[in-house]
Write a structure and sequence with these properties.
Blueprint: H1 11-18, H2 21-29, H3 44-51, H4 54-62, H5 77-83, H6 87-104
Helix pairs in contact: 1-2, 1-3, 2-4, 3-4, 3-5, 4-6, 5-6
Length: 111
């Protein structure tokens, strides 16, 4: 069972949106689902990217957060971080995405 707020946020969404890196890591260790989206179809990674929490994004990525998931407006975490000028997160996401590209041998058109 997944407990949600009125905005459909889980404990993972809340911890990520507040920058609570340790809590995010603990929730993930105890089985929190990375792919769950809230009302705006954002994952915890979208929220960390939107708010500039690089450490939270790093933890989410280390647990396998999916970079390819778009939010309600069609934007992915990389776009959201770039729009907010969060270069540390942008660099991190590009590095992870580049590693994924090498594994599947395709190049997204926006790179």
């Amino acid at each position: 069972m997944i407990v949600r707020t009125q905005k459909s946020r889980t404990a993972l969404h809340i911890a990520a949106s507040l920058g609570y890196c340790d809590i995010v890591e603990t929730l993930l260790k105890f089985g929190a689902c990375l792919g769950v989206t809230e009302k705006r179809q954002q994952t915890a990674l979208h929220l960390a990217a939107e708010l500039g929490y690089a450490e939270v994004a790093e933890v989410l990525l280390s647990f396998g957060a999916d970079l390819s998931v778009p939010e309600k407006g069609g934007r992915k975490a990389l776009y959201i971080a770039a729009r907010g000028s969060y270069t540390a997160i942008v660099d991190m996401l590009i590095k992870v995405e580049r590693n994924q590209i090498v594994k599947v041998r395709y190049l997204p058109t926006y790179l």
